[in-house]
Amino acid sequence: MRPLRDTSYIGKVLHYYDSTDSTNSRMHAMLSDKTSYVQEGTLVLAGTQTAGRGQRQNVWADRQGSSVLATVLFKPQLSDVKKVFYLNKAVAVALQNAIAIYCPDVRIKWPNDILSNGKKIAGILIENGFAGNTLTSVVCGFGINVLQDTFPDELPHATSRYMVSGKRPDLAEVLQTVAQALESTYDLFRAGAYPDIDKMYHEHLFGLHIQRPFLFKNEPVQGVIQGVHVDGSLKLQIENRVHSVNLQDVQYIL
After folding, report:
1. C-alpha–C-alpha distance, residues 87 and 51, integer Å
2. pLDDT band for position 105 (cuts 50, 70, 90)
3. Residue 141 to residue 9: CA distance in whole angstroms
């Protein structure tokens, strides 16, 4: 597969596999090989994954040639660890922007899912590498449902670009759009434009300031998302108290 066009660094080095365990695992293997150098923006792309992963160690389901399954390498050299989650936000904003060109009501579901019409259309898995207190490498994996027309019964809240738009785009076209959006928001991150990233993230945050049901520490509650902290924890208001919660504490009830 040819390197991507119309980008400065993402996808200029591209490794394609018809099938692999996961694109993140492939990238980690490349980084572990001390005999070769992996440059920033290197992209690993797969036709299908046999062990794709998501948040909470969930398995990412896909069919051959139906999804964009990719991992890109970033090397931010960020010494302020309090700013690390801004990269997660930048990536989520990029996917939201790219998918919203073609799909309706595209929202960022904290921490790393993208929804269209309230159903999951994409997921992100970011794995950070540190040298001391400096963020030196970010293995950023993402999967976008593009051509699926159905999903298994155990995935009732999944959707695809085809299902919401009725159109069957070329996967390479979708990848190109996402890569350009990623470069744009990552460049904002590298420039320290954290307020801009935060504003865009919250503009598209699913459920912001809306009361909805959650499981909080395994108990059903009515809560209101008030935002996301700098460290990535969710501001969840339950009755008159705002809690700072992590992924293990809370689940959405969709």
Report:
1. 25
2. very high
3. 17
Give the Cα separation of 137 and 127 in Å (integer). 8
* Residue 27 one-letter amino acid: M
- CA distance readout (Å), 48 to 4, 13, 20, 215: 19, 20, 7, 32
**Beta bridge mates, 237:** 224, 242
Looking at residue 58, what is its pLDDT? 54
Cis peptide before 111 (omega within 30 of 0): yes
With a cut of 50, say whether residue 56 has pLDDT above it: no
pTM score, whole prediction: 0.94
pLDDT of residue 54: 54
What does the pLDDT look like over 112-123, one tens digit per residue? 999 999 999 999
DSSP for the chain reads -PPPSS-SSTTSSEEEEEEES-HHHHHHHHHH-TTS---TT-EEEEEEESS-B-GGGPBPP--TTSEEEEEEEE---B--GGGTHHHHHHHHHHHHHHHHTTSSSEEEETTTEEEETTEEEEEEEEEEEEETTEEEEEEEEEEEE-S-S---TT-TTB--HHHHHS----HHHHHHHHHHHHHHHHHHHHTT-HHHHHHHHHHTBTTBT-EEEEEETTEEEEEEEEEE-TTS-EEEEETTEEEEE-TTTEEE--
Could you tell me the end-to-end alpha-carbon distance of the chain, in angstroms, rounded to an integer? 38
